[in-house]
Write a structure and sequence with these properties.
- It is a single chain.
- By secondary structure, the chain is mainly alpha-helical.
- Strand 6, helix 23 and strand 7 form a beta-alpha-beta unit.
- The chain is elongated and about 120 Å long.
Length: 779
């Protein structure tokens, strides 16, 4: 207008390797230009120059490079600077550089998400300005900053530009009248609102010009004298002061009504929106009111949620206001119901853990706001349980894995093999490979869990987790064999030994926090003591590489109790001794356990010989004592380990009708049928149930019931372990306590529904188990 300041930002561009004096030269140039424009001489001055909108405001350098500007707006830029930069345009110097600057700040100004918190910051800014003018007593007379003034029209338009300019480039304009026209054209405001605001803006700006022409200086306040008002009225074409005041009042009332409605309409359908969170984080909401807001937003424990919010607010390092704006918007999105959460309070606590570990709170808040897929998967993961939070806190770079979703089987296997191979190739010794092994395992396991979040397919989860474990064991054995070959006279490091997986790894049914049941066999004379000791040391070192506790935790817990003689036996057994043990000393429970054996590394020819001995042992002569023994052992497990007698807990695996019922029944069935029918020689319950051959022991309906129950119990076990980040397998019998767990299932249930389904299924499993064992025991 007639007596405006001019707000300038100086930008230059030089290569990163430019000498330091180049930067000082641009500072001098900036100071000289500012002086030429604003210096008072005998003839006056050109313009009042305001440089406070540059990065860092009055406390920063006068001039910044393009790269410095980018870093500033990315990390420290505040909301008021976004409003200011709406009007940025190049006016002198290198035009292409100026356009480049405008393009550079566009993502900072125009977000890819609805920035409701910015509206709250705007309201706070306007309220501060109103208080300041009220203190000076000119608020009613100020046609720029006062009620219904120019500033309210500009801010009204700018809010829409900030909210929607990211998706609608046509709205990106610094000209207020053009902005109003575009907002009307795109349906963001009603035609009468556009018309009235445009008319009011022109009228108020004409008053502003008239005032400044008359005063010869920058002013926005109406004269306090009748003479001054009469002169203004005549200058604007009004006959009387009263007519001027009537028209002015009508415009200002209309402007303020529209402006005020902008804030009222942001209530977000009853959800706690970004604006409410911004006030809460800024300490403008009393604790009791904050708890009420959080309870209404779905937080079961408002106190814990409030503490988590404050921790998230405090996680930002620098640029606190900007980070708070981003966090407030993110919280509004989280509680909007976009991603259904079973435990919103726990999600906040876990999110704070991830944010704190990232070291870049504001950047992560913004990324989550702008990337809906990443946000939804992160929230789903954090809602699934502590495991996701723990992995992301330990390895923040895993956030990128959330965007990948479904894995390609071949490329995933290749990637896992290559990742472990790289650890082995780069390791100086075993000690140097401990943490890298744990890191690779955690990263690859996390990818599998992300896929599970997307597909909820237990078969893919267990197959892929088993694949990761297979690769880890083989890589660990190669790493150890390279430095201490168990058989120095062998043709290669894999010759002369084999490792077998039993249990869940043997059946490819590994889930999170599963132990690895491993048995090592080698080819050699049982009386060769040096060879025996080398193989014991080899196995001990492989175990250490996988299971030794370090700052990064453990890769896997290794269980070698299924080896011959159990805890008292050798870690690696000569083949001849292994065969003799199976013939002479092995017990019935070992026949059951070895139904799940699978070679996963070492000498393939030796593995075939071991497998032949195992098959002869497992599928040897049948005896009616086998089901009787299995039922006896099963009873002891239930009584002594399940601990269900108190009625307050349920053991998914060892409890009545649990997974052990299904496993034991099918293992005994395999032993009986597998001798004559090789199709029963399938490692693992899931695979056997998926293609169970016809048998008189189980009807088709019973097999179907076992299949359904097994899937239900294993899925429940997996959800529980991800939730607690432990190897736990017990749940409470209190329906209320089961509620969060029940809601996390692929088919969400209530706690009472989960408990009822569990009892129905396990009772049916127990009936089938008892009937099946009776049939097996009767010949």
């Amino acid at each position: 207008n007639y007596s405006s300041d001019i707000d300038l930002i100086y930008v230059y561009d030089v290569p990163p390797e430019a000498p330091g004096d180049v930067h000082q030269r641009y500072q001098r140039l900036g100071r000289r230009l500012t002086t030429l424009l604003s210096e008072h001489t005998a003839e006056g001055y050109l313009y009042r120059v305001d440089m406070r909108l540059r990065p860092m405001g009055g406390g920063g350098n006068l001039v910044y490079s393009l790269r410095q500007s980018a870093q500033y707006y990315e990390n420290l830029g505040e909301t008021f600077e976004r409003f200011a930069l709406l009007k940025a345009r190049p006016i002198a110097g290198d035009r292409a550089l100026g356009e480049k600057f405008v393009e550079l700040v566009a993502p900072f100004v125009y977000r890819k998400y609805l920035d409701h918190a910015a509206i709250e910051e705007l309201a706070r800014y306007k309220a501060r300005a109103d208080r300041e003018h009220a203190r000076h007593g000119d608020l009613d007379r100020n046609i720029k900053e006062g009620r219904g003034g120019i500033r309210e029209i500009e801010l009204f338009a700018q809010v829409f530009l900030l909210l929607h300019g990211g998706e609608r480039p046509a709205l990106r304009t610094g000209h207020t009248l053009t902005a109003l026209q575009q907002l009307g054209a795109h349906g963001f405001i009603e035609p009468d609102v556009q018309r009235d605001l445009a008319a009011a803006y022109i009228f108020l700006r004409n008053i502003e010009h008239g005032l400044q022409v008359a005063e010869g200086q920058q002013t926005h306040s109406l004269s306090g004298t009748e003479r001054g008002l009469r002169a203004l009225a005549r200058r604007l074409g009004f006959d009387t002061i009263e007519t001027l005041e009537e028209v002015l009042s009508r415009h200002r009332e209309r402007v303020h009504a529209v402006y005020a409605r902008l804030f009222e309409e942001d209530a977000d359908d009853g959800n706690v929106a970004g604006r409410d969170y911004f006030r809460l984080l800024a300490g403008e909401v009393a604790d009791d009111d904050a708890r009420t807001l959080l309870a209404a937003a779905g937080f079961d424990e408002p106190d814990s949620a409030l503490n988590a919010l404050r921790a998230l607010d405090g996680a930002a390092r620098g640029g606190r206001s900007r980070a708070r704006n981003l966090l407030a918007n993110l919280l509004g999105t989280i509680t909007s119901g976009e991603t259904p959460l079973s435990a919103a309070g726990a999600v906040l606590i876990r999110l704070e853990r991830v944010i704190a570990a990232s070291g870049a709170a504001a950047s992560l808040y913004r990324t989550l706001l702008e990337d809906r897929l990443l946000r939804e998967r992160l929230l789903a993961g954090l809602d699934a349980g502590d495991l996701f939070a723990a992995r992301l806190a330990a390895y923040p770079e895993l956030l990128d894995s959330l965007a990948r979703g479904v894995l390609d089987s071949d490329s995933f296997q290749t990637a896992v093999v290559e990742a472990f191979d790289e650890v082995v190739a780069n390791g100086r010794d075993i000690q140097s490979q401990l943490d890298p092994f744990r890191r690779v395992k955690a990263i690859e396991e996390f990818k599998v869990l992300v896929e599970w979040l997307t597909l909820r397919r237990l078969d893919l989860l267990t197959d892929r987790l088993s694949l990761v474990a297979d690769c880890a064991v083989r890589a660990a054995a190669r790493a150890v064999a390279r430095d201490m070959p168990p058989a120095p006279d062998a043709a290669d490091a894999d010759s002369g030994w084999a490792v077998f997986a039993l249990g869940k790894l043997g059946s490819r049914e590994l889930t999170v926090h599963s132990d690895l049941d491993l048995v090592f066999v080698y080819d050699g004379d049982p009386g060769d003591a040096p060879r025996f000791e080398r193989h014991q040391k080899f196995v001990r070192t492989v175990q250490d590489l996988l299971s030794k506790t370090t700052a990064a935790g453990v890769a896997y817990k290794i269980d070698t109790r299924l080896r011959p003689e159990g805890r008292m036996g050798a870690l690696a057994t000569p083949l001849a001794a292994f065969e003799r043990y199976l013939r002479e000393r092995a017990e019935i429970w070992e026949r059951m356990a070895w139904t799940r054996c699978r070679a996963i590394g070492g000498d393939a020819a030796l593995a075939e010989r071991v497998q032949s001995a195992v098959d002869e042992f497992v599928y040897g002569p049948w005896s009616d004592e086998i089901p009787a023994f299995a039922r006896h052992v099963r009873g002891r497990i239930e009584r002594e380990l399940a601990k269900e007698a108190g009625g307050d807990r349920i053991d998914l695996k060892r409890g009545r009708g649990g997974l052990v019922d299904i496993d034991f029944l099918l293992q005994v069935l395999q032993i009986r049928e597998g001798r004559e029918r090789p199709e029963f020689r399938v490692a693992g319950t899931r695979r056997l149930l998926a293609a169970l051959p016809a048998t008189e022991v189980l009807t088709r309906a019973e097999a179907d019931a076992l299949r359904d129950a097994y899937g239900f119990l294993r899925n429940l076990e997996t959800v529980l372990r991800i939730d607690t980040d432990t190897d736990g397998g017990a749940i409470a019998t209190d329906p209320a306590a089961l509620e969060p767990l029940a809601r996390r299932l692929a088919e969400p249930l209530t706690g009472a529904e989960l408990l009822a389904r569990y009892r129905d299924m396990t009772e049916r499993v127990r009936e089938i188990y008892e009937a099946g064992m009776e049939r097996l025991g009767s010949g």
